[in-house]
Amino acid sequence: MRLRFEQWRDFLDMDADSINTLREFGGLIRPHMDLLMDGVYAYIHANAAASATFSDPAAMQRARAHQLRHWQDHVFAGNFNQDYLEATLAIGRTHQQLGVDLRFYSGAYVVVLNQLVVLLGQLVPDEARRSRYLTAVNRAVFLDMGLATYAYYDTLLNALEDMAQEVTLSLARAGEYRDNETGKHITRMSKMCEQMALALGKDATWAHALRMASPLHDVGKIGVPDRILLKPGRLDDNESQIMREHPRIGGTIIPEHPALVIRMARRIALTHHEKWDGSGYPAGLCGEEIPLEGRIAAICDVYDALVSTRPYKPAWSQQAALDYLQQQSGLHFDPHLVSTFLRIVPEVEAIQSRYAESTS
């Protein structure tokens, strides 16, 4: 988790005194837990959309029994251990996968708190003691709700990210297949980009975004006529000029958007053929005028193309390809990035081995 479990507990002041108070409270409330669950599930029954989540009455009974154990064994027992963490995250993930509306999900916690206030008013006449219990219970309930909600949204975001990745790869493959490239080229190239980013000290979020974005580097080839893109021989000057438009076409296909992955993808599409010395295209950028992601993608794209077999050329040896990168350091490629790539050769080899082309 991005935020460590201990930080969640500390943020809510779930200290030893609170845990001891919860355990004391748990013994008091345990005989009344069925009544508490009755209130929660009456709330669910009263909402057609919430009750429709359950396929049949037996499913609702299973959920009730599971929830009862969770509250008794963990939340109101002050057992905030690894088992509790995994159970709470599983609840959030399951609710998202079942399509539980988060309004009803959160509402159930409100019902629990309201019922506890009423129960404590009946069971604990001493106001100071009652206040102590309520403080500890509030912390426990909000800890539980926070973790489960986190897991709910995390599961949703992961599903959306998976869909976005599939769309990205499908669009990328459309460009690659038209150019006699292979789907595994974009996989290898994108994973090399991610490894380079990590080696440069970029955080995992940036590196992951680069892996998501880099497969679209050649998407602009969709707009290049087949007679040029698939020509087996050397392109003439006019054809070369048309081919050199594919970065601009890619920049047109990928919209301007505030999302990091889309911003990266557009910059990579536009700049992966720029060169460190300014002799590249389409804009003739040089040095650090070229975005970092474009400079990284250029090295990984060229390297993987060199060591791969193509209809028009045999695969180069690894050493020949590495020698070429070094020869082009300061000309085609950012010298610092070439040095970085040389440092991650073992990771590059592992990527090439794992995503090697099928020989069948």
TrEMBL record:
Spell out the molecular function terms from Gene Ontology.
heme binding; oxygen binding; phosphoric diester hydrolase activity
UniProt source species? Aquitalea magnusonii
In terms of Pfam families, this protein maps to: HD_5 (PF13487), Protoglobin (PF11563)
Q: Coiled coil located at which positions?
A: none
InterPro entries per record: Cyclic_di-GMP/3'3'-cGAMP_PDE, Globin-like_sf, Globin-sensor_dom, Globin/Proto, HD/PDEase_dom, HD_GYP_dom, Protoglobin_sensor_dom
Would you tell me the protein name for this molecule?
Answer: Putative two-component system response regulator
Q: Tell me the ranges covered by the HD-GYP domain, including all copies.
A: 160-357
